[in-house]
Amino acid sequence: MAGIAIDKLVKRYGATQVVHGIDLTIEDGEFVVFVGPSGCGKSTTLRMIAGLEDINDGTISIGGQVVNRLEPKERNIAMVFQNYAIYPHMSVAENIAFGLYTSGLDKAAKRKRVEEVGEVLGLTPLLERRPSALSGGQRQRVAIGRAMVRDPAVFLFDEPLSNLDAQLRAQMRLEIKRLHQRLGTTIVFVTHDQVEAMTLADRIVVMRDGHILQVGAPMELYEKPADVFTARFIGSPTMNVVPAKATAEAGRSSLQLGEAPLAWSTALPADVLVGVRPQELRVLEQGESADLVLSGTVVVVEPLGPETFVHVEAEGGLLLASASAKHPPVVGSAVRLGASASGLRLFDAKSERAL
Amino acid sequence: MTGSSLMQRFAPGRVIVWLLLLAGGLLMLTPLLFMFSTSLKDSADIYDLRLIPAAPTLDNYKTVLSDGRFLRWFWNSLAIATIVTLSNVFFDSLVGYTLAKFQFRGRYLVFLAILSTLMIPTEMLVIPWYVMAKNFGWLDSYWGIMFPGMMTAFGTFLMKQFFETVPNDFLEAARVDGLNEFAIFWRIALPLVTPALSALAIFTFLSNWTAFIWPLIVTTSKELYTLPVGLASFAVESQIQWELIMTGAALATIPTLAVFLLLQRYIVRGVVLAGLKG
After folding, report:
1. Which of A11, A207, A347, B54 suits a disulfide with A19, CB 3.0-4.6 Å?
2. A161 Cβ partners below 8 Å, 6+ apart?
3. Do B170 and A85 lie within an 8 Å CB cutoff?
4. ipTM of the complex as predicted
């Protein structure tokens, strides 16, 4: 096992720079998830860790050793690809054994390792099958098996669940999480799905346009997003962000939003963005009050079973709020939405950084 | 069978198509049938144009097979076609793979240069090949017959196109698994393009088995003749023995038929994949 240190890492394709000098330290045994939209540089960074992309500047160290010039096979890593990359002309057992290509083990020892891994991943009855006879989830397990069999220092996962349906994805998430708990190996996992990031990670790295925006534990990012992008990217449904004016006086401010000005204990810039998660913004009962109250008209009602979300046309645009699952408002009705001050996240309107 | 499906089966359009196909099939089959028929006739009966010989005999086969020259030419053709096929399968794939999967300066230029040779007809190349063979001392040798076909632009192009369809993830996974670049080509990429390889192998073998012009030009010793050249030499001898020529030709079709019967699945697939016509 080993930790990873990334120092001022730069990647360029011709004149275009796609990773802009990022720094990150991943502890030994940690499960770190890189998350961000397409083109943010997360997969490129992972591929640089794997040795599949050249590094233009900066260094990557694995287990204390700088690996910039090492071939992938010399880095003691294993990688699981988005499209599984299990060889169609080999059986499941041969695919898993391929991970031991450079191990120097004899045939019997390899077979034993393959059977052990097959057992752990529930692949024992499938060992002699060809990949074409497997389901998507089984193929993904074979790919994980091929990575596992080598007992590498670091596992790298490049969007491994994106080709699976929602149910299977949830199941594989659980399996990967349990695998990490069992093996304790360092894992770097790339995804654009924030649910995967939240459920799997010890720490999440949010990337955008080749920069790291924020690194932290899932709940830390959820509770204290460093900027509007992270606030909207982490958490489901997406956080509502509403522009507002503020007036500051003697280290305190007054936020001009909703039915009544909202007193704020710190000095705020004149233009702010107010973030409130749909779970924190509730449809108020008649006569009920809250720190922030906005009025609007219900446009769409989305019952989800235990809770119901309503889209409300209100001051600041279309807002998503939670409503009583038993007595949701009807489309077209006028509603009042309320949130407590503690549920609000404020951002500078210019820099979009958290205040 | 219901009335409507019968009607569908014998619709005028379909009947016309069948008749046309039948006529085309007969047109191609007739010379072959006459070849086999003549090979079973006595020399006195060869101008009797009945398809089924009056007195069929295997004497021609005995004569041809006991003639050392025929067997020699047969083996020459077999060896040359096999070696050239193996060489093409290996080198065309290797170059095609390199052009498809590696980024290097001049890659596109190399590919264009290879493609441009496809524009030159074989007849135009015969003279430079001959000059080359003469200068290197390859005239009248096996290597002289084989060298122009050891690697082909078409095969390289075909394989490059197929390797481009192999996802890079497979190759990168193998790189992470510790394979060197040749092992990745040999153990991962090559097995993934088996249909294209089969098509290339079949067409290379068949075209070399039937090659005539270049082996005729480059060889002078009769023991180096390939089967088509040898059979043609029968025809220019003082007394043309058509029954023996037809017997030789009938025997020469055996490997072709064997290749077809064994690999017809691949041939059809190969034709579809490569966009070739026979």
Report:
1. A11
2. A140, A169, A172, A173, A191, A193, A196
3. yes
4. 0.81
